[in-house]
Automatic annotation (TrEMBL):
EC numbers: 1.1.1.17
Swiss-Prot/TrEMBL catalytic activity: D-mannitol 1-phosphate + NAD(+) = beta-D-fructose 6-phosphate + NADH + H(+)
Cited SUPFAM superfamilies: 6-phosphogluconate dehydrogenase C-terminal domain-like, NAD(P)-binding Rossmann-fold domains
Family assignment from sequence similarity: Belongs to the mannitol dehydrogenase family.
Domain Mannitol dehydrogenase N-terminal: 5-222
Cited Gene3D superfamilies: N-(1-d-carboxylethyl)-l-norvaline Dehydrogenase, domain 2, NAD(P)-binding Rossmann-like Domain
Protein name per UniProt: Mannitol-1-phosphate 5-dehydrogenase
Organism per entry: Paractinoplanes pyxinae
Protein origin, superkingdom: Bacteria
Residue span, Mannitol dehydrogenase C-terminal domain: 231-358
Keywords for the protein's UniProt record, in alphabetical order: NAD, Oxidoreductase
Main enzyme class: oxidoreductase
Xref: PROSITE patterns: MANNITOL_DHGENASE
Keyword NAD in annotation: yes
Length: 410
């Protein structure tokens, strides 16, 4: 069996389609993975020795690949095992996929990492790399900030030890991975011939771009195509604005038109035109050559249109209060500063406000309540979301116009 040398926090679908898949190419490295809290998935994986089927689903066919890099799985509530594994000198890397919301100051990411790193320091186990794989700009820097803030408050000596021993790696991650459904489980069991309780469906496309140090070594992720660069920012900006921003547009505007999945929404000529309009605006703010952006847009359209990937708009719509500031506001601000009215970006904001008012996908967002209370007034939403923009009368008028347009289109 592979030795445990990576610990993962956030044992969900994406981790199993992405980081675990890349680690699968290096047999010297095994992963111990922790769920957020509950035990169900950890128990299911433990019953099958960590093995699961990754269904790589193209537009015409499936490629079933049994994955073996996860050698142990635990409930996130198992704090004792978490601390002892992060403290283990054989462990050199911690990867994370806990969603954007988990990086709040004092949130679950800071809490778990500080507990684990404190145990590592006491054990004298030496340096380690922390690799955030969540859709956050500068995810390494954000992780470092929340960890240092908490550690400094709890124990300044621990904070110093973290500065000297812990590397925070920044990454751009990309592979569309919808939530596994019960019918996926049944279908995979039939195709596989064994009762896999934890399969994952993903697309063929995958990307992982990383920047940072691995002071105690790392798996040979480049064998799966991972790229190590000096600066992730251009790549992360491309992905967050074009893919994730495009997703958010379809999630709110597409679901309000009755669509359930990304493929259905992108087949709707209006939604498709809105997507292109958003991409035209967003591309002005991605520091990459035009031909690279054109190729990425073409590939994205094919990926979004894959009818065999059932990626629900409701899944993407979740946690909008965390996602809109990252995926849409940078373009909105930059365009307004340049004196333009970016109707594509404003449409995402308007569609999100419509969603907060109860149209389209249901609201599933722990941070939504203050926005729901203000959703009747565009200005009040803006004063909470982006106070620097709440005096922009033209922006408010354009947002109101698009909210009305959306009402007329329903
Ligand atoms: N699914 C994708 O296509 C995809 C692609 C790129 C990046 N990502 C990143 O990965 C993250 C996870 O995606 P996923 O599809 O694996 O989701 P998922 O729901 O399958 O898994 C997320 C894991 O994090 C845990 N978690 C989430 N919020 C938590 C909280 N506040 N407290 C405790 N535990 C919490 C969950 O319990 C689960 O173990 C996304 O939010 C995103 O940042 C996902
Ligand atoms: O995973 P989230 O909730 O951050 O965002 C939903 C989707 O936009 C996202 O999961 C994409 O599918 C993914 O980022 C593709 O790589």
């Amino acid at each position: 069996m592979r030795p445990v040398r990576v610990v993962h926090l956030g044992l969900g679908g994406f981790f199993r389609a992405h980081q675990a898949w890349y680690t699968g190419f290096d047999e010297e490295w095994g992963i111990a993975a922790f769920t957020g809290r509950s035990a169900g998935l950890a128990e299911a994986l433990t019953r099958q020795d960590g093995r699961y089927t990754l269904v790589v689903r193209g537009p015409d066919s499936d490629d079933l690949q049994v994955q073996e890099s996860v050698v142990a799985a635990y409930a996130g509530s198992d704090a004792t095992t978490w601390r002892s594994l992060v403290a283990d000198p054989a462990v050199s890397v911690v990867t994370i996929t806990m969603t954007e919301a988990a990086y709040a100051p004092d949130g679950v990411v800071a809490d778990r990492l500080v507990a684990g790193l404190s145990a590592r320091r006491l054990a004298g186990s030496g340096p380690i790399a922390i690799v955030s794989c969540d859709n956050l700009p500068g995810n390494g820097e954000v992780t470092a900030r929340v960890v240092h803030e908490l550690a400094a408050r709890l124990d300044p000596a621990l904070d110093e030890w973290i500065s000297a021993h812990v590397s925070f790696v920044t990454t751009m991650v990309d592979r569309i991975t919808p939530k596994t459904t019960d019918s996926d489980v049944r279908e995979v069991a039939e195709a596989d011939g064994w009762a896999d309780a934890a399969p994952v469906i993903t697309e063929p496309y995958t990307e992982w771009i990383l920047s940072g140090d691995f002071p105690a070594g790392r798996p040979a992720w480049e064998r799966g195509g991972a790229r190590f660069v000096d600066d992730v920012v251009p790549h992360e900006t491309r992905k967050l604005l074009l893919l994730n921003g495009g997703h958010s547009l379809l999630a709110y505007a597409g679901s309000a038109r009755g669509h359930e999945t990304v493929a259905e929404a992108v087949a709707d000529p209006d939604c498709r035109a809105w997507l292109e309009q958003w991409w035209d605006e967003a591309c002005r703010h991605v520091p990459l050559p035009d031909d690279e952006l054109t190729a990425y847009r073409a590939a994205l359209l094919e990926r979004f249109a894959n009818p065999r990937i059932r990626h629900t708009l409701a899944q993407i719509a979740a946690d909008g209060s965390q996602k809109i500031p990252i995926r849409v506001l940078p373009v909105l601000r930059a365009e307004r500063a340049d004196g333009r009215m970016p109707t594509g970006a404003v449409r995402i904001l308007a569609a999100w406000i419509d969603h907060l008012r109860g149209f389209g996908a249901p609201v599933s967002d722990a941070g939504a309540q203050p926005y729901i209370e203000r959703a009747g007034s565009v200005r009040e939403v803006l004063s909470l979301l982006a106070p620097d923009l709440d005096g922009d009368q033209d922006l408010i008028a354009e947002t109101e116009r698009l909210v009305q347009e959306s009402k007329a289109n329903r």
